[in-house]
């Protein structure tokens, strides 16, 4: 049975379907707000012939976003989000139909890369997405010491300022900081201004008993040089204040990160600081003496990347070493990528061209997505997830794609 995917015409039904899938309850007052950052022409639906009358069988949406790549280019991407299938329609191929639709539309629009945050790890690999960025969650005790003598002079010139995220001008300042830092931190994903407005306004349902998110800026000479988001949670234990401050993604260079990190581990009435989104090569881990200094360290997948168009995506990023490899790409959901490509990198510049030469390597397109931001993919060969036909060819490819520093985790979208 072929499943028709079409643009949404009924914003209320679209939102109500999302709310059923995500067991939410939204007031009319918040409805328009929740759809912010999701342009009306980027909402798509499926109605199965025997599906529910009042809701859609499936929905998905695309946020137009930008992402920084190895080498510093900042390129448009499709931020896949709002994926949901009605409980009565699940496991009948609705998601598979929506994924084909998404990839076709993205390619037609000239968008070479799609990215997402996955609700469950097992869903998106089959659709050609690779886990491209890892992130640590780190717990730090009150007053944790950060040792970075080489940065002290620079940090001394910085001040920190705590503001409500919803205060005028804050989201514009956050976005400007992200755009400025992105080239130095490949993997950074930046939303349109509407997306920041969405994050700044938290509905009563999202907040429950939590304080609204606040933004801590680092400034030098009156100019923003970085920020992070935080939220404090009260707790009293044995008559002592022992709250937890939950801290989001850090943005800015090393000195800004250090100034912000010192501030968030020294907030009154707090006992623990939970850093929710720390890249695996983030200097913070080194400043506390390594993983044991961080305490209770957990690792998750952050951004998943999908090359919508291998030929267009490959040359967008820079490469740290050379390669010349013929790759047989398997791609069930974006058949225009399937077949043999000569992938090269020389003096930092990549090129992808069709070839009839015998393949050196056979892999699923998801492997190219996993390595696209610089995350190491050498282990896929050992795991039996790629096949090598010319000895050393896969190592050559994996080395060229890998970057010295691991990619930056992104803010959830
Ligand atoms: C980017 C984001 O928005 S992330 C949010 C994703 N949404 C959610 O998690 C909301 C709750 N879950 C759902 O709405 C649905 O269960 C979905 C979207 C995950 C799956 O939708 P379905 O229409 O049931 O998937 P569909 O029938 O197309 O399945 C396609 C394939 O994926 C597999 N699959 C689907 N969901 C899962 C899962 N959660 N874990 C593992 N495999 C899965 C199916 O088994 C099927 O495999 P096959 O091709 O080997 O037969």
From TrEMBL:
EC number: 2.3.1.-
Keyword Acyltransferase tagged: yes
Chain ranges of the Enhanced intracellular survival protein domain: 311-405
GO molecular function annotations of the record: acyltransferase activity
Chaperone in keyword set: no
UniProt-listed InterPro entries: Acetyltransferase_Eis, Acyl_CoA_acyltransferase, Eis_dom, SCP2_sterol-bd_dom_sf
Domain of life of the source: Bacteria
Name this polypeptide is given: GNAT family N-acetyltransferase
Provenance organism: Nocardioides pini
Taxonomy of the source species: Bacteria, Bacillati, Actinomycetota, Actinomycetes, Propionibacteriales
């Amino acid at each position: 049975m072929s499943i028709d995917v079409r643009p949404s015409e009924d914003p209320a039904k679209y939102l109500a379907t999302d709310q059923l899938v995500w067991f939410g309850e939204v007031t009319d007052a918040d409805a328009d707000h929740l759809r912010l950052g999701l342009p009306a022409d980027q909402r798509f639906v499926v109605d199965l012939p025997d599906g529910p009358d009042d809701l859609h069988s499936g929905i998905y949406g695309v946020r137009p976003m930008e992402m920084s790549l190895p080498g510093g280019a900042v390129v448009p991407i499709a931020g896949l989000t709002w994926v949901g299938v009605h409980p009565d329609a699940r496991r009948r191929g609705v998601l598979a139909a929506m994924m084909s639709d998404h990839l076709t539309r993205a390619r037609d629009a000239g968008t070479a890369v799609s990215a997402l945050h996955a609700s469950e790890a097992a869903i998106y690999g089959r659709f050609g997405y690779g886990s491209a960025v890892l992130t640590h969650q780190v717990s730090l005790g009150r007053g944790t010491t950060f040792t970075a003598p080489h940065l002290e002079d620079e940090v001394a010139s910085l001040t920190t300022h705590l503001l409500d995220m919803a205060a005028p001008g804050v989201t514009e300042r956050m976005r400007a900081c992200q755009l400025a830092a992105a080239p130095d931190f490949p993997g950074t994903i930046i939303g349109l201004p509407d997306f920041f407005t969405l994050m700044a306004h938290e509905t009563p349902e999202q907040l429950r008993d939590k304080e609204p998110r606040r933004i801590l800026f680092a400034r030098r000479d009156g100019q923003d040089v970085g920020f992070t988001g935080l939220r404090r949670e009260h707790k009293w234990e044995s008559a002592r204040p022992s709250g937890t401050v939950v801290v989001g993604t850090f943005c800015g260079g090393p000195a800004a990160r250090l100034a912000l990190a010192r501030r968030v581990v020294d907030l009154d009435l707090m006992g623990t600081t939970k850093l929710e989104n720390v890249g695996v090569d983030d200097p913070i881990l080194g400043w506390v003496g390594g993983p044991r200094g961080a305490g209770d360290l957990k690792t998750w997948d952050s951004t998943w990347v999908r090359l919508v168009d291998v030929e267009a995506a490959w040359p967008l990023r820079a490469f740290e070493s050379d390669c010349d490899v013929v790759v047989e790409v398997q791609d069930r959901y974006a058949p225009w990528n399937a077949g043999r490509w000569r992938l090269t990198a020389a003096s930092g510049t990549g090129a992808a061209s069709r070839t009839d030469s015998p393949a050196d390597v056979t892999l699923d397109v998801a492997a190219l997505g996993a390595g696209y931001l610089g995350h190491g993919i050498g282990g896929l060969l050992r795991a039996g997830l790629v096949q090598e036909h010319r000895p050393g060819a896969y190592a050559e490819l994996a080395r060229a794609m890998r970057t010295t520093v691991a990619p930056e985790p992104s803010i959830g979208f």
